[in-house]
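Checked the freezer inventory, then went back to the computational side. Two predictions to log before the end of the day. The first one is the construct we discussed on Monday; recording sequence and tokens without edits.
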Amino acid sequence: MTAPAGDASLEARVRMEIERAIQRSIKGLEYISTGDPAVGLTPKDVIHSRGTLKLYHYRPQADEVYRVPVMLVMSLVSKPYIPDLAPGQSLVEFLVKRGFDVYMIDWGCRGRRMRGCGSKTTCSTSSRTVWSGCSRTRASARFRSSATAWAGSFRRCTPRSIPTGR
């Protein structure tokens, strides 16, 4: 007795699906067994820290650096490595290689001590951090004027001007 042609093709498809499932399982196990990828590898210096908050300055990687800096302010819930994921997939790396002077505020992990901190505390902390960064680095006059405008915008923050969702 010979199997009809339809049964042979069904058997071949089942074998192919089983083989694909095995290959997926192997790849999944390989993925799980590897460690976490290295993120946030662009060279940087901590120029100011206070509690969990840190102000990073990324080292320039171009011959000429623009005089007006870029300030990245992470949200309170985002990890600081999001704009600096991996070499070749990093916004920060892209900016510093093209001559931008990049700074970033990282809020750190907000614990129980920070539970009562609202938007007003966050805004005033941001402006103080920028000012500390200006005074501790040899920031250019352009950076100081940019930081003045940036910190001034945070000083104008009040609980009334920021929606709280209450």
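The second is the one RB wanted added to the comparison set:
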Amino acid sequence: MATPAAAPRHSCAKLSVAVEDPKAPGGGGIFVKATWLPTRFSLAVTDGAGAWVADASDAEVRLRAEQWDQPVSEYLALAERYLAFHQPSSTYSFHEAGNGNRRLSWTFEKQGTKLEWRWKLQQSPHTQQTIAEVLDFLMDANIRLSEEVVRKTQSFDKLKQEAEKCLQQSERFNNEKADFEQASFTKVQFLVSIYSMCYTYGIRVILSL
């Protein structure tokens, strides 16, 4: 039986990047939407005004991994680490690469040496559609996050209510226990006083608690 293909993972991160003109629309910040597969990945990048895409094939990823003496899985894991989440220790840049294309690069350290990876992105043939897809993904992710927060808040509230009920039951038990002990103590005192009185007058009694 054939092994089922691994489901793709999706990510979208806002990266602070160095650009030629920080005053340009989206200057200093880009959104990178990525789709990760076991042997390849694809990128869609927007600064809010333009959009660029890259589709790293199996062969391209394998070649890059070989150039860095890495297995494909390790290469992809490292790329995902830096493109799915903004890493404060990394320096990101997003520069012109001619003909409307862009080059996305990021730095990382390996064995004390600072290295840089780059990927060239082509201008999207459907700029508005690409931008819309990135924004839709962000909105969906925000909705899912909001729903998760609501679920966790509801679970916390329910847990808090159960804890309050347990506390109230514990307090009631302690009060009932104290009342029982006080009643028992009073009964013992009464019986002891009766016994003492009977003893004084020479009357034999059997105490029953």
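For RB: The beta strands are 9-18, 29-36, 41-46, 51-56, 92-96, 102-110, 113-123. The first helix runs from residue 58 to 67. Let me know if you want it refolded.
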